[in-house]
Specification:
Layout lengths: L5 E3 L8 H7 L9 H18 L5 E4 L3 H10 L7 E6 L2 H12 L3 E6 L8 H10 L5 E7 L1 E2 L4 E2 L2 H11 L3 E5 L11 H4 L3 E5 L11 E5 L1 H9 L9 H8 L10 H17 L1 H21 L15 E4 L6 H12 L1 E5 L9 E4 L6 H17 L9 H10 L1
Parallel strand pairs: 1-12, 3-4, 3-5, 5-8, 8-9
Antiparallel strand pairs: 2-10, 6-7, 9-10, 11-13, 12-13
Helix pairs in contact: 1-10, 2-10, 3-4, 5-6, 11-14, 12-13, 13-14
The chain binds pyridoxal-5'-phosphate.
């Protein structure tokens, strides 16, 4: 059936109709007074969402572009950096850092496990000469559904005093509490197709005063993603280059929706959806990849042992028109991921879980009590 597609992947995420309609307009001139007013409203909304008084800069890039901007604006060739690596996207931090000639030290954990905060503490306290210029981590590791302990790692970075904390919050921003100013996070990168509830195409970078100081002396080459240009333009409710005008209509509408819901409610909804999904998966006697105490509120990774992950995804897509995400790199074929990020409600989870149960039955896997998944999810959602 047409137009019944249901996205249950951790990005791109579903887009509300109000946002789709807001984007379905003729673009206006990006240097016009009318567009300046939209930029001004968006910038206020972004500060609210990021819980910061500092500027949040909007770029026409995907999340990876925002990550790259987070490196090239604040560091210099040969700078020593600690990079946490426990999945596809945190590996990307290491790749970007290496591509720009930084001296990269990797603190790794098995995919599906969180980063060990003690390893960061040990490295940072041993660095009495203050050579480490940045600690770079992914908060919500979307490839495995693991939420890293950003708060604790950041505490050790603060004790170090010199290093910046650079964070990929691509799938935690708008899904989990990331109080940027309260925690003193220096550089926070995110992307539009996630908690923002708009399509792909925009990247965002929040920058602390300390990071702006580092910007003054940073020597990596930059031009299009020179954040100084964006900061200067922001002060005049403008952009340095042509922005994605229609996406920004959508962003204006989605930020209004988010502000009506309220940050606390948004975080509580994501937590509830996560717990409902995890309870259902357990009741269906399937294995969860990430432990309970470090579960990402963006995606739940399921590692079924006696039923094929790709067959599950295939039936969910063909028969029920529900898109689930697969595994990445060495987890390809071994896991599937249920996205519950952004414009997702209790009803969506119940729908996805009941279709998952039907799919499992079709595949001959009935190692669970009848309706066990739906019952477990409903109990959490009640
Ligand atoms: C945690 C995380 N970081 C970075 C990215 C990369 O973003 P993009 O594909 O928009 O470049 C993603 C995308 O899924 C992500 O989930």
């Amino acid at each position: 059936m047409e137009d019944k597609h249901m996205l249950m992947i951790p990005g791109p995420t579903p887009v509300p109709e109000k946002v789709l309609l807001a984007m379905a307009q003729h673009p206006i001139g990006h240097r016009s007074g009318d567009f300046s007013k939209i930029i001004a409203e968006i910038n206020q909304g972004l500060k609210w969402l990021h819980q910061t008084k500092n500027e949040v800069l909007s770029l026409t890039v995907s999340g990876t572009g925002a990550m790259e901007a987070g490196i090239i604006n604040f560091l210099s060739p040969g700078d020593r950096v600690l990079v946490g690596s426990n999945g596809k996207f945190s590996d990307r931090w290491a790749q970007i850092s290496e591509a720009f000639g930084l001296k990269v030290e990797i603190i790794s954990a098995e995919w599906g496990k969180p980063l060990d905060t003690e390893e960061f503490r040990t490295k940072l306290t041993a660095d009495t000469n203050k050579e480490i210029k940045a600690v770079i981590i992914t908060h919500s590791e979307t490839s495995t559904g693991v939420l890293n302990d950003l708060e604790t790692i950041n505490k050790y970075v603060k004790e170090h005093g010199e290093a910046l904390i650079i964070v990929d919050a691509v799938t935690s921003l708008g899904a989990y509490n990331v109080p940027i100013d309260e925690w003193g996070l220096d550089v926070v990168a995110s992307g539009s197709q996630k908690g923002y509830m708009i399509p792909p195409g925009m990247g965002f970078v929040a920058v602390s005063d300390k990071a702006w100081k580092a910007y003054e002396t940073a020597k990596l080459p930059r031009f299009y993603m020179d954040l100084g240009k964006y900061k200067k333009a922001n002060a005049k409710d403008s952009t340095p280059f042509t922005p994605p005008v229609n996406l920004m209509y959508g962003l204006q509408a989605s930020l209004q929706m988010m502000q009506r819901e309220g940050l606390e409610n948004i975080f509580a909804r994501h937590e509830r959806l996560t717990q409902a999904t995890r309870a259902a998966v357990k009741a269906l006697r399937l294995d969860l990849l990430a432990p309970d105490d470090c579960a990402s509120t963006a995606a739940t990774a399921v590692a079924p042992s006696s039923v094929d992950a790709e067959q599950i995804r295939g039936i969910m897509r063909k028969k029920y028109d529900i898109a689930l995400a697969g595994g990445q790199d060495h987890l390809k074929g071994k896991i599937f991921r249920i996205g519950h990020l952004g414009f997702v409600s209790d009803r969506d989870i119940l729908t996805a879980i009941s279709c998952l149960e039907a799919t499992l039955i079709e595949l001959g896997y009935e190692d669970f009590a009848s309706k066990a998944g739906v019952k477990a999810a409903a109990k959490v959602l009640a």
